[in-house]
Design a protein that fits this description.
The chain has about 210 residues and is of the alpha+beta class. It has a domain of about 90 residues: Structural Genomics Hypothetical 15.5 Kd Protein In mrcA-pckA Intergenic Region, Chain A, CATH 3.10.290. Helix content is about 40%, strand content about 10%. It has a 5-stranded antiparallel sheet, covered by helices on one side. The two termini are about 30 Å apart.
Length: about 210
Amino acid sequence: MARYTGPVCRLCRYLGEKLMLKGEKCSTPKCPLERKNAPPGHHTSTRRRRISDRGLQLREKQKVRFSYGVLERQFRRFFTEAARAPGATGENLLILLERRLDNVVYRLGFADSRAQARQIVRHGHILVNGHKTDIPSFLVKSGDNVKWRQASTRTEYYKRLAEEIKGKTTLGWLSLDEEKMTGKVLTLPSIDDIDAKFDEKSIVEYYSR
């Protein structure tokens, strides 16, 4: 599937806020948003124009889409699935995105960013319930076990990660065995487990027009 390959810092500048698309690097002074909080492109003023209600809804949708690294067509499929499920559509959408395997790999601390987690999954380094799963959009279920493939534990990245991951905290719906480098989905995530602040109602309004 096609994937956005341009500079991700440009996306943060476009939205005017940090999406932590480069992981810990976004917390350093080198972050472009720290040096110049202005939209990308040539302009003479850094002042942002007033945005319409429709524009605000679009921005909120783009913020969620960029954060999880999902393209528009795939994002729309997630929205359709969320709308069919019982409960609030916006909350269902965010919970579905949280259940993606690449996001779980990121949440467990196996990667610094979702983009890196997606690459790890794509390269076949991750097992779900003992089976190699190289589909980043795979949706985990309660009780699923996520671990590294045995052959991947010999890589330099894994050895360094095994040292750096000690002491990291995970969200309440996940558990991590630092010694075995194995994660488990204790329960499905709730809207309160999502640490980023998204206005899911604006996304529903955007697609409702």
